Amino acid sequence: MNNDIERVLYSTEEINAAENRLAKQINADYADKKPLVVSVLTGAAPFSVDMFKKMTCYAQLDFIDVSSYYGGTESTGTIKLIHDLKADLEGQDVLIMEDIVDTGRTLRYLVDLLGERGANSVKVCTLLDKPEGRKVEIEADYVGFVVPNEFLVGYGLDYQGYYRNLPYVGILKPSVYSK
């Protein structure tokens, strides 16, 4: 897999440092609250679990799965809810954990959906933010890194289900996905 990477964008150490920075801010912001952390499957799972372990406030964890990529390299623009939350959101302070905000369509869908379900507040923490890819106006509240408009894999991000287990975030060689 490493041979398919054009270059490493963020090392394991850099990711850990960003998570520590984000966790410090989240812990301060949620010190007197009991947030429901909503991890967006499958890509955000590694980031969500690592962040959850660094949270010092009372918190619950749930998972939601939505997709607009379906294994490709670009969003189809159609959001499909694949796996719903178990938790009741009425009155909850929700913190969405996302791997990357690209077009913003998925995130806009989730923020609206969770708000409609009665959440007290909905905030977003993302490891990666790709503003150049934005098609819908939305911003994350907590951002690890602002990234270039490249096809990224690793640390949860995939291409056709692979590369999620890389311990870093890298740029996938175009020759891999243009076959």
From TrEMBL:
PANTHER family: HYPOXANTHINE PHOSPHORIBOSYLTRANSFERASE (PTHR43340:SF1), HYPOXANTHINE-GUANINE PHOSPHORIBOSYLTRANSFERASE (PTHR43340). Coiled coil: none annotated. It is found in: Cytoplasm. NCBIfam families: HGPRTase (TIGR01203). This is Hypoxanthine phosphoribosyltransferase. Transmembrane segments: none annotated. The keyword Glycosyltransferase applies. Pathway: Purine metabolism; IMP biosynthesis via salvage pathway; IMP from hypoxanthine: step 1/1; Purine metabolism; GMP biosynthesis via salvage pathway; GMP from guanine: step 1/1. Belongs to the purine/pyrimidine phosphoribosyltransferase family.
